[in-house]
Fold each of these.
Amino acid sequence: MLGKVIIILVTFLLQCALSGSAVTFQTPDVLTISYIKKDPNFYKYCKQQLKNVVGIRDEGISNVSCQALCYSANDDPPRSFSNKKDNGGDFDKWARSKEYRGYIHIPSFSVSCDAKGYISSDPKDPDYSDQHNPTQNPEKVVNIERNPYGYTKEYTPYIIYSSADIYTNDATFNGIRWSKIKDNTCLSIFDARASRLSTIARYIQYFLLKYDAPFIYAKVYMTVCCNRQVSVTVHRTVFPQTSLYINGTKVSEQAQTELGKFILSGGKPAKDFKIDEDGNWIIKHIKELIKNFSLSADGHGNLAPYGQDLTWNGKA
Ligand SMILES: *[C@@H]1O[C@H](CO)[C@@H](O)[C@H](O)[C@H]1NC(C)=O
Ligand SMILES: *[C@@H]1O[C@H](CO)[C@@H](O)[C@H](O)[C@H]1NC(C)=O
Ligand SMILES: *[C@@H]1O[C@H](CO)[C@@H](O)[C@H](O)[C@H]1NC(C)=O
């Protein structure tokens, strides 16, 4: 009798040790920010890249282009955010400042696992844009005051922020997706955003440098397992600067590099043109020039080359 009880007890304890109990836990809040970093050497670097990599011989064109790029650089985003949720919180205020080229925000969400260590419920899509915007069609989500696709900061000569041109070439590129992986013991979450210069800034670049603007992007690959292991990898373009935040604190940053290669990746326009005028003349006649040359359609063009990833691994 006692032997039987011991066997049952041991079996029970063994089962507990092997399978644990059902758990529900919160994932960390994940945020990536893309922005053009202000740097005292950026003007010099830009001119050197235009000359040596892009092959711009006219110093006037090079001066105007690099000045415009320096003016459009962003303020550094904060090193940490204390409130990611509320309208009027520090993250919301920053998002409404429009001082970025794009961001991806995957708020903390709950994951439930059964006693055997399998994902037991599909998480609800986190509402990363704002409470009023669904996440299913992010390319249709355009909140002019706060937009994860970012803004082009233009100096006209006062500063304005124009909405970026959203990548629509590949309908499946932008947005969030979920799946269960590794025999249902982990969740895979993917979110991506691609956009480029506002239409008017893109035309100005096109006439100055004879290259179309490429699309920048960030792709977040997040894995959350029932053993609470979390990994985040951000695949991003060489330009601009990209930061990764976990629970509101910056954990990693990759520098903006290879500006020349980035510009070349936009590609030459289909229709060739020659303008023997300086940058100021081009800006003055921009509307007429847009009419005269057929340029690539909004949303359609090349993606910029990818650069160094950002990664984070930890426990939920
Ligand atoms: C992130 O915040 C959650 C609570 O929202 C907490 O459970 C978790 O431990 C934090 N993770 C890290 C890596 O700071
Ligand atoms: C370009 O700017 C430099 C200063 O950065 C100046 O010395 C040079 O004269 C300018 N060239 C033209 C053609 O405007
Ligand atoms: C645009 O094309 C028209 C007609 O060919 C021409 O008269 C005009 O000068 C062009 N404008 C510019 C800014 O090149």
Amino acid sequence: MASTQCVVVLFLITFTSTAFPRSILETSPKTHHSFTFNPISIRRKIPNDGDAFYCDSWRLSDGNAFYCESWRLSVETDNAGSWTQIPASCLDFVEEYATGDHYSSDLEVFAENALEFAKEVNVSSIHGKDAWVFDIDETLLSNVGYYEFYGFGYYDVDALNEWVESAVDPALPASLELYKELQNMGFKLILLTGRSESLRNATEKNLLQAGYSNWETLILR
Ligand SMILES: *[C@@H]1O[C@H](CO)[C@@H](O)[C@H](O)[C@H]1NC(C)=O
Ligand SMILES: *[C@@H]1O[C@H](CO)[C@@H](O)[C@H](O)[C@H]1NC(C)=O
């Protein structure tokens, strides 16, 4: 690392990384018998009229959506502070956001912005900034299956760890694409996660299965 000229660029997905953990309304989980879920919903193609999603922050249609979008913005800007529950009236909004096309559209836009930035960096210059830091959950890998499994109304750290152990999270497609592009550009990719060290093997396994490889280092808590 000593030779690595680096100041780090954080690629953060603010809404999902702050809104999902520790914040889902705690209600009883739906009864299921095993961790089986279908990740297809988050791999759905973004439709060609993607501009509608792009502009969505500026325009909303129905009444409750205004409230939920305001709440979302408040979380993103950290104005909501250490809140613990998604408003019950917004559970559907969160589900719709995460499993519909909106989340993947947001990710596409973030990845595009990040790539534009990356192109401005001269990685091969002796003064180049050649390290790039990625978070993992809701940045490289999607835990949406976990939240879907619990009906978007339940968060429990033990259950989430158990989920992570099963190493079934799919890649977020836009992030995987960005990851590979950055790698081709010569960036050294550093993965920094709040996951515990005890989840290293499961995390590595999941990352590899999802298509990520050749990271410089993986730092767990
Ligand atoms: C990038 O840096 C290298 C080494 O300093 C230099 O030779 C090259 O011209 C630079 N490229 C650009 C596009 O500035
Ligand atoms: C991780 O895997 C290595 C071998 O691949 C093994 O030696 C080690 O005990 C495993 N760690 C945990 C926490 O399971």
